[in-house]
Amino acid sequence: MKSYFIGIFICFNVFLSAQDIPNSLAQCFGMALRNNVDIEVQEPLVDIADEDITFAKSPFDDTLLTAGFSYDKAETLFLQEDLGNFNIGVTKRFLTGTAVNLRYDLEYRRSSDFDIFQDINSIDQALGLNGLLNDDDLNIQKLWTSALTLQVNQPLLRNFGVDVNETNINLARKQKKIADYEIERQVNDTLRDVEIAYWTWVSLLKVRGVLENSISRTQEYKEKFVEQRVGVEGVLPSDVDQSTIDIKRRRDFLIRTEKDIKVWEDRLRRLIYPFDAKTIDVFSQKLPAAGDAMGNFQVGGLSTQGIPEFEYDVALKYRPELKQVEEQVSGLNLVIDERKNFLLPRLDVTAGVSFAGEEEGTNTSLRRTFKGESYQWQVGVVFEYPIGNTGAQSQLDKAKNEKKRAKAQLNQAQYDVCLEIRLSHHSVVEALEKYKNLSEILEKANTRLESLERRNNNPLPGDFNLIFFLQDSEFQATQALTDLYQAILEYKIAYSSLKRAQAKYIQNVYMKYKKN
């Protein structure tokens, strides 16, 4: 009998670390990181954030090409005119706020307008073209005008500087970090759930083995007792019936345990396997072997080494929920700076130069344009001062209040994380104390059972209903062992919650997984 319970005293370090995790649990972690659907739901957030960054940068990365064509025709009593216009241009914006526009215009005019007629006749005479510009039949004049224009606009106050114009880009980058931290948050939660499901499954497997052995042993007790003692004075049939009832009760416990094993197997499969919508076979896949964990689940000598440190600083540094709120506070600083800029007056400097050419032919007017014989340039200043500017001031005040709230949320989250660590730590200590107490109970129950077994094998005069005491003692020993397993499970669940609170899954599992 002693060998039956000797396994419970196999010692191993109860302070579970990443190196102590058995290979089968580590395998479950790896499968969850590859297949878990909850993590998969969060992963596209990073790609979405990347597209937001690209969109925010697009006004400065993209070059705008514009082109247009129009044709107008007018016929009145005093005017006959055909007017065609073609233009093409490019516009480019820079992070400094500078906007540059290069534009080419080509215009064709065929007109009988009197003033234009006089102007064209003057040009015709000055150039000695002998009426080439005139339409002798209709007195219609033709003119091609070509122009190349460069326009530059530079803000000096509002929207001036890279920091101001890069606000939306930086906000999008911070949103990407928040998306990364959201994945880490889901990983932290999922791996905690995987460990709880795994150890619960292993615990139930252990309990099932204990119950099966208990039923087998009590059945042996009954058969041996009935064979040797029934009919002996003092042995009642009710004693045999009670023995049968005790065995049935153990079988009832075993039935419920078998159901619980299936439930936790399915929960574990849900966490580590992908879902195949075509065959819906996620629940038929075989789980990783728990053989290594079966021995590793047993806990031996208890010491204060099994009580982990609080490690508040580590948690405050690595918890993804805290880093998300920190990014939100940092992003609101950018928003505040941008909205302060809206309170400034507008002062822009604009400058441009244009080269034009007018001739009777398209090619001729184009050549005259690029010769630079006819040009025009201009420099100007645009000033705009909002009187009151209540809208911008309201948006600035709103951003400041949002930052104030975000900082309060950060303090709240930090406080909650520290509380979560303490509560998990209390549960770890409680489980270890329960384990220590139950270990002593189990030892006493085993000693009593061994004593009764020896007495049953060599009964004293008057020992007629030892079956009752023997089965009761075996039941107590079995109950003590299952209670001990429950205490071990409570420890592992509490410790997994503590590891989640301290972001240990991020540090010891996820970061290594990403590196590989």
Short description:
This protein is of the alpha+beta class. The chain has helices at residues 2-5, 23-35, 37-42, 44-61, 114-127, 162-165, 167-229, 237-272, 291-296, 312-318, 320-342, 362-371, 390-457, 466-501, 504-515, and strands at residues 63-75, 80-93, 99-111, 141-155, 346-359, 374-384.
Helix-strand layout with pairing:
Layout: H1 2-5, H2 23-35, H3 37-42, H4 44-61, E1 63-75, E2 80-93, E3 99-111, H5 114-127, E4 141-155, H6 162-165, H7 167-229, H8 237-272, H9 291-296, H10 312-318, H11 320-342, E5 346-359, H12 362-371, E6 374-384, H13 390-457, H14 466-501, H15 504-515
CATH architecture of the domain at 2-53 and 168-334 and 397-515: Up-down Bundle
By DSSP (H or I, 4+ residues per run), the number of helices equals: 15
How would you classify the helix and strand content by structural class?
alpha+beta
What's the β-strand tally? Answer: 6
Please list the strands of the largest sheet in the order they lie side by side. Answer: 1-2-3-4-5-6
Secondary-structure element string:
HHHHEEEHEHHHHHHEHEHHH
- Based on CA atoms alone, the radius of gyration comes out at 43 Å
Q: In whole angstroms, how far apart are the ends?
A: 48 Å
CATH fold annotation of the domain at 2-53 and 168-334 and 397-515: Outer membrane efflux proteins (OEP)
Question: Hey, roughly how much beta strand do the residues contain?
Answer: 15-25%
